[in-house]
Amino acid sequence: MSARRGNVFVVSGPSGVGKSTIVRRVLESDPQVRFSVSHTTRARREGEQDGVDYRFVDLPAFQALIAKGAFLEHAEYQGNYYGTSRAAVEEPTRLGFDLILEVEVQGAKQLQTRLPNAIRVFIRPPSLASLETRLRARNTEDASVARGRLERAREELLYADECQHRIVNDSVDKAVDELLRVIRDARRAAT
């Protein structure tokens, strides 16, 4: 890699909007982009791998990391904790890789002050009705949790105006292309 320090992209949006799918496709498309693996206390979903999708830890371990000041941001969401460690951001960007942090809105707000130069990208659903359909189709939690996520999404959509870039995920291919364009534009501006 070059001597250039990598850019940090904070990708946020409501649960179920397709952030993970978009980010995964961007990572497959651009070898100069890395993914910041967050810590979480939530149970592993089918197909997820520790150290790849998340660093899965129990609550006491998560609390110990908070006490050590290991996180740039951490938040509770739907009864589970999520956090981005300082090390997960520092190492890849120092090596010149661009880095995507995929975080919930609460975490993105914390990162806005802790990483003021980060480029904030908000992924929106085409509508709340389409988001509800996506949440139900995931079939990863019971109906009451899905309802809670939808209610929270209504509030989280207000954060979009605080982000430099907003992408409507009405087509995954189009959303991936838009995020890649944002990354490449920022890379060109940094040289």
Task: Report a brief summary of the structure.
With 191 residues, this protein is an alpha/beta fold. It has 7 helices and 9 strands; from the N terminus they run βαβββαββαβαβααβα.
Descriptive tags:
7 helices, Rossmann fold, alpha/beta, 9 strands, five-stranded parallel sheet, single chain
Report on the structure:
- Helix 1 crosses helix 7 and helix 5 runs antiparallel to helix 6 (143-156).
- The chain is of the alpha/beta class and 191 residues long.
- The two termini are 13 Å apart.
- The mean pLDDT is 91.
- It has helices at residues 19-29, 59-67, 86-94, 105-114, 128-138, 143-156, 172-190, and strands spanning 8-12, 33-35, 39-40, 55-56, 71-77, 80-85, 98-102, 119-124, 165-168.
- Strand 5 and strand 6 (80-85) form a beta hairpin.
- The chain contains seven helices and nine strands; from the N terminus they run E-H-E-E-E-H-E-E-H-E-H-E-H-H-E-H.
- Helices cover 43% and strands 21% of the residues.
- It has one domain (8-190): P-loop containing nucleotide triphosphate hydrolases (Rossmann fold, 3-Layer(aba) Sandwich).
- A five-stranded parallel beta sheet has the order 2-7-1-8-9, sandwiched between helices.
Task: Reconstruct the topology from this structure.
Layout: E1 8-12, H1 19-29, E2 33-35, E3 39-40, E4 55-56, H2 59-67, E5 71-77, E6 80-85, H3 86-94, E7 98-102, H4 105-114, E8 119-124, H5 128-138, H6 143-156, E9 165-168, H7 172-190
Parallel strand pairs: 1-7, 1-8, 2-7, 3-4, 8-9
Antiparallel strand pairs: 3-6, 5-6
Helix pairs in contact: 1-7, 5-6
